[in-house]
From TrEMBL:
Superkingdom, taxonomy of origin: Bacteria
UniProt entry tagged with the keyword Mitochondrion: no
Lineage: Bacteria, Pseudomonadati, Pseudomonadota, Alphaproteobacteria, Rhodospirillales
Domain PAC positions: 370-428
UniProt protein name: histidine kinase
Pfam families: HATPase_c, HisKA, PAS_4
Length: 679
């Protein structure tokens, strides 16, 4: 019985589909007929308008015996005759009886019509319609002839039949359909589709083309077309009461092209529905058998989910928005000290295992209320387990339904005691490191100050001995020893000064004594001091400063220290015969850039990343070959930072180094004239 009912339902689907397809086919045929009627009306009106305008032109020429001025101005087509793709009235002619052209206007003007299809009509001297005929260039024409009133000749209007062909070909009626313009004798004047026998013989379809009896203006046709052996529908219409017809013929296949597609689509849809209904019926029967199996599987899945829930080391629980316990895992029950049966259904903050004091219970309750309002809550709290206080990271996340209302709160708690203790140890270690750093800075400052006093005495007394202020030293070796003592003392003093400056900069106790400086003067002073070691090393020292540099707000001592350090390094690392150039320019942003460029040994690329750090040098062998501690560039960088500027180094091994210091525009004043006065 169930199978019979299923068969009846499917048969009903097919009957409904067949009825719908039959009605759709009838509608498509009627729509096609309406299309032929409407299109034939438009095309008949177009042809009628062309014939009427040509007749008007002929009447005017026949009465006047010439082509009047207003017709000459519209030689390619009188007003109203150029509808569609190009002019319809091709040429106007006044022709003598012997065929000579008295006057012509248009596109195909000739001196004589002798030897053309027009010649017989011209000799006859009566009104006639000539065509279709083909011109030497392959175009198709027709002509309307009217005798002149004075009998001296005829007036002729040549129609461009190719214009009608282009117009008909532009209509979208289907690849198998056709539009025809033809005479009463069946000679086709124009048609829309190429590739037919009409291309060679315009009278090829004369026996099949429909004609209308006198008094009938239009007729719709349907049925079999003997000219092509196919079903067709169409409309034939007489043009302006003349023996001319417009025939719009559409093959049934073109009309039903969309219906054919819809037919197969409907068949496939009906077949698909039938298959789906059959499958659904079978699936429904199978589903009943699987329902019990699915229920058992769901119960097993619920048990597995609960097992995963309980196996987590984190404390997890589900609460209702009002704070009642819905579900808990084993770690949560162990923390509360009660089984799950005693906890489910009660308020979460009522159990001391989770909130051991009234303050913690109140905080827990407030957190649950915030989460119930739709907020994500996270906080830290203390719990006591086995007599040990543990720090827990608690999160309460709301779960929303499709309407945006909170339905469940998910509570998770993680033991972060070790992380908190590690953070505390790290903070203590940082405090100790900062204290050690402050002690180091204080020690360096104190020792540097204490060492400078005896060093100044050593340098001073060795200078007295070198100049023999209190008498000769005796042996010449004593003078050499005194010079070595003085040089060593000065080297040690420079080292101590660098260490003292570095300790002040690290401790943040270096204070700038700012005043307006002239960059060119400062550079010249430093150049003079560096000239002696440059001459001794055979290095050319040059200055190239832009004229009219503005004044600079800077610490005079710090500026001199930076410039001398850069010049000293450039001279030190430039071999004999090299060159060191100091330049200063005003940059586009308004700041001042001072650069020291040398042709020395250069710095490897891997060393440029660390060269500005304290006690760092480009090569571990440099202290032994050139001396120094590696503090100079680091001090220069920090001094420029105090000025709000920067220090950059660009170098390539074997091609020299360029060190540039830049002061911001906020430290630049007005330009300085040559005499040292503001410009």
């Amino acid at each position: 019985m169930r199978i019979g009912l299923l068969v009846a339902v499917i048969a009903g689907f097919w009957l409904v589909a067949y009825a719908d397809l039959d009605r759709a086919r009838d509608r498509a045929i009627q729509d096609g007929l309406r299309q032929t009627v409407n299109l034939s009306i438009l095309l008949e009106e177009d042809a009628r308008r062309v014939i009427v305008v040509a007749g008007y032109s002929l009447r005017t020429m026949a009465e006047s015996g010439r082509i009047t001025a207003h017709l000459l101005s519209d030689a390619a087509g009188p007003p109203g005759a150029d509808a569609g793709p190009g002019p319809a009235l091709r040429t106007l002619l006044i022709v003598e009886r012997d065929g000579r052209v008295r006057q012509a206007a248009g596109l195909d003007a000739t001196a004589s019509v002798a030897g053309t299809p027009l010649a017989d009509a011209v000799r006859d001297g009566s009104a006639a319609f000539v065509g279709p005929y083909q011109t030497a260039d392959g175009g198709w024409r027709a002509a309307m002839i009217r005798p002149l009133t004075d009998g001296s000749g005829v007036a002729a209007a040549v129609l461009d039949l190719d214009r009608f062909t282009r117009l008909y070909a532009s209509q979208t009626i289907g690849p198998l359909s056709i539009i025809l313009l033809y005479r009463e004798n069946g000679a086709v004047l124009a048609y829309s589709r190429t590739g037919l026998r009409l291309d060679q013989d315009r009278a090829a379809f004369a026996a099949f083309l429909p004609r209308l009896p006198a008094g009938e203006a239009a007729r719709t046709l349907s049925g079999f077309d003997p000219s092509e052996g196919r079903e067709r529908i169409g409309t034939v219409r007489r043009v302006a009461g003349l023996p001319l017809y417009v025939y719009v013929r559409i093959r049934t296949d073109d009309v039903l092209a969309g219906w054919y597609n819809d037919r197969w689509k409907r068949v496939l849809e009906t077949a698909a529905v039938s298959v789906v209904v059959t499958l659904l019926a079978l699936l429904a029967l199978r589903q009943l058998g699987r329902l019990e199996t699915t229920t058992l599987a769901l119960r097993a899945s619920d048990r597995r989910s609960q097992a995963l829930f309980d196996s987590s080391f984190q404390i997890m629980g589900l609460l209702s928005p009002d704070g009642r316990v819905l579900a808990l895992n084993q770690p949560a029950c162990a923390l509360a000290g009660l089984p799950a049966e005693a906890l489910v259904g009660h308020r979460a903050w009522e159990f001391r295992g989770w909130a051991r004091t009234d303050e913690l219970a109140a905080g827990f309750r407030q957190s649950i209320e915030k989460a119930a309002a739709g907020r994500f809550v996270r906080y830290e709290t203390d719990v006591v387990t086995d007599g040990v206080t543990r720090v827990m990271d608690v999160t309460i996340k709301p779960v929303f339904d499709d309407r945006g209302a909170v339905t469940v709160l998910v509570v998770e708690a993680r033991d972060i005691t070790e992380r908190v203790e590690a953070a505390a140890r790290l903070a203590a270690a940082l405090d100790q490191a900062e204290a050690a750093n402050r002690a180091k800075s204080a020690f360096l400052a104190t020792m540097s100050h204490e060492l400078r006093t005896p060093l100044n005495a050593i340098i001073g007394f060795s200078d007295i001995m070198l100049h023999e202020l209190f008498g000769p030293l005796g042996s010449p070796r004593y003078r050499d020893y005194a010079r070595h003592v003085q040089n060593s003392g000065r080297h040690l003093l420079d080292l101590i000064n660098d260490v003292l400056d570095m300790s002040k900069l690290e401790a943040g106790r270096y204070t700038l004594d700012e005043s307006w400086q002239e960059p060119a003067a400062a550079i010249e002073n430093c150049r003079a001091l560096a000239a002696v070691p440059a001459d001794a090393g055979g290095v050319l020292l040059a200055v190239d400063c832009a004229p009219g540099l503005p004044s600079l707000l800077a610490d005079e001592r710090a500026l001199r220290q930076v410039l001398l350090n850069l010049l000293s390094n450039a001279v030190k690392f430039t071999p004999r015969g090299g060159r060191v150039t100091v330049s200063a320019v005003r940059e586009e942003d308004g700041g001042i850039a001072i650069s020291v460029r040398d042709t020395g040994i250069g710095i490897p690329a891997e060393a440029l990343t660390r060269i500005l750090e304290p006690f760092q040098q480009a090569d571990s062998s440099i202290p032994g070959r050139f001396g120094g501690t590696g503090l100079g560039l680091s001090i220069c960088r920090d001094l420029m930072s105090l000025h709000g500027g920067s220090l950059s180094i660009d170098s390539e091994p074997g091609r020299g180094t360029t060190a540039a210091i830049r002061f911001p525009a906020t430290r630049v004043g007005p330009p300085v004239a040559a005499e040292g006065l503001p410009a």
